[in-house]
Amino acid sequence: MRGPGAAITLDAIAMTKTYSQIVKQIESLKAEAEKLRKTEVDGVVKRIREAIGHYGLTAADLGLGAGGATKGKGKIAVKSKPGPKGKGPAAKTIKFRNEQGQGWGGRGKRPQWLRDALNTGKKLEDFLVK
Predict the structure, then answer these.
(1) 77-127 in CATH: which number?
(2) Tens digit of pLDDT for each residue in 62-74?
(3) Which of 3, 122, 129, 130 is a good FRET partner for 77, with 20 to 30 A between their CA atoms?
(4) Do residues 105 and 93 make contact, with C-beta atoms less than 8 angstroms apart?
(5) CB 96, CB 108: distance < 8 Å
(6) Cα–Cα dist 70/87, whole Å
(7) 67 vs 74, 76, 106, CA distance in Å?
(8) Gap between the Cα atoms of 91 and 70, Å rounded
(9) CB atoms within 10 A of CB 9
């Protein structure tokens, strides 16, 4: 005699799914998720537009002016860990930036986006914030 659960019943076999059935289900769920995401994004954009209109905000107010997400002289001060011996924050300045707005202060390990760009033949000076 077999112990409990040792016998495979026809019900158990009928309930198992094949790999292709699961892949189809995943694709269906991805499509459903994308539709829901678009609906939610549309709602968010609508609320943002209403707030922009209500407060009379401009692209520059939102940091979206001609210089991208930068203000002032093209550099953004980034909050960071406190400086040595708690003497206030050690402000970092973005010295290099790509077209997507990703930045690097020039210290520490170069970010992956910059290393990838340099490997394609671009020069560090191409990303210098002026």
Answers:
(1) 4.10.430.10
(2) 888 655 544 444 4
(3) 122
(4) yes
(5) no
(6) 27
(7) 7, 11, 20
(8) 16
(9) 9
